[in-house]
Structures are given as C-alpha cells and as structure tokens.
Write a structure and sequence with these properties.
Rossmann fold; 8 strands; globular
Length: 262
Amino acid sequence: MWRKYFSIMAALPLTLSGVLVTSDNQKIAYEHYLNGHQKLVIIVHGFYNSKQAVLLQNLKDELLTTYDVFMFDLRGHGKSGGFFTWTSHEDKDLIAVLDYLKGKYKRIGIIAFSLGASICLNVLSKEKRADALICVSAPSEFKKIDYQFWKLNPKDDLFYTLISSDGRKGKGVRTGPFWLKKQNPIQNVGNLEVPVLYIHGQKDWVIKPWHSQLLYDRTKTKKKLVLIKEGPHAEYLLKEHAKEMINIINDWFKENLKLEDR
C-alpha cells in the first residue's frame, strides 16, 4: 500500500508557488509546475480569468505530459496585486516572468488568450524571449474590440461563468483606468521573430475573427491561422472544443519546440 502511495506521489509534478516583483513594484503570483522536462509552456490568461480557472488548469494537466508549465496571474487578477490596466502596463508582468525563467529551459512556448495574447505580441515584438507562441482570440487593437454584449453566449458567459461552480472558480478582476496609453499589436506583429499560431472561434462575440486574420496578414515570421467552426471566445474554446484545441496546441508546440533545432 505505502509503496503504491509513494509511486503515485513521485509521478506528480512538483509545484512551486511564489511572487515576482515587476519593474513598477507590482506583485505577480505564480505557480511553476516541474515535471522534469527541458521544455516549458507559459499559460497567459485573459481578462476576468486567473491561473486557477478550471479550463486553464485542465490545459495545464494536458501539457504536463510533455512540458513543464508556468502559470501566473496578471495584475488585478487572482492573487496578484494591483489593478488591471487593460494591457497598458501588463507587459511588465510578462517581462518579470520571462526574466525569472531565463536560462532555466532549452525551449519555451507561450499560449495566451484574448488580452493576454495582446500583451505577448507586444512584448515578443521587442525581442525574442520565447521560441513559439499561440494567440487565442487576440485583438489587433484595443479600441477596435467588438464588444457587443447583446450577442453574448448565455451558456458560457452567464450559466458557466456566473452559476457553475467550475466556471466561477478563479474568476474576477480589479480594474484600473482604461484610458491609459496602449501598444497596439497590429503595429508590432511585423517585428516578431517567433513562430505564431493564431486561433479564433468563428462565433466569437467579443473579438471578431477578423482581428486574428489581420494580425496573421501582418505577421512576417512563420505563422498559421486556425478558425474553429462554431467556436466561442478565448478560454471557452477549451470547453466547447477541448479535443480539437488540445490537438492543435500540441501539434504547434511539437513542431516549433524541437530540441534538435538548436
């Protein structure tokens, strides 16, 4: 019995929890899942989510068979401090994460959702800090987000997020001013060097698919665009199209995080 117990415990990943401090003194909470891999995937959540969101935890569990995983809360979300500034200062959160991870892995991939994807596109356009990127429901420009609340998805945006115990877990945000100056991904993607996969649901009511199409068109590095038929917004794609999403994600990272490429 005890031998079986210790065998199970040995197979579980080691989880390191901690706090990083950004260049503007914001505290960013993280969880680093170590499973003995030489490659790592960073998961960057979108607005109103956090590293504890069930759908993102499920994604983490899928990835851990091949990669170590790093998850963190953007400022104003989860256990991180401060207020969310709608992508104006969140680049510092990601930079703090990348600084912490520097030199720890041979290959690093990032998968980011919605406004989290905007942050990643802006940061990685300045310098190559990762080896592969996946952007899910990325807006091309903040002020052009098509937020049409009358077209929301009742099943996901109301029942799942507000009523379901799974959907409520890890949700919430403390918002700051939205009028601060922002970088626009559409102006930066032409400088990317990292391979980028854009994924977008064709029925995304928050950020229309044309955003990813425009970003894809302006991207000069290795790229791919996948439109999910009947697909909703961002993290909800992991609920409604879980198997398809996992296959797409695994294929992109397998192709672009090869150790023999170095």
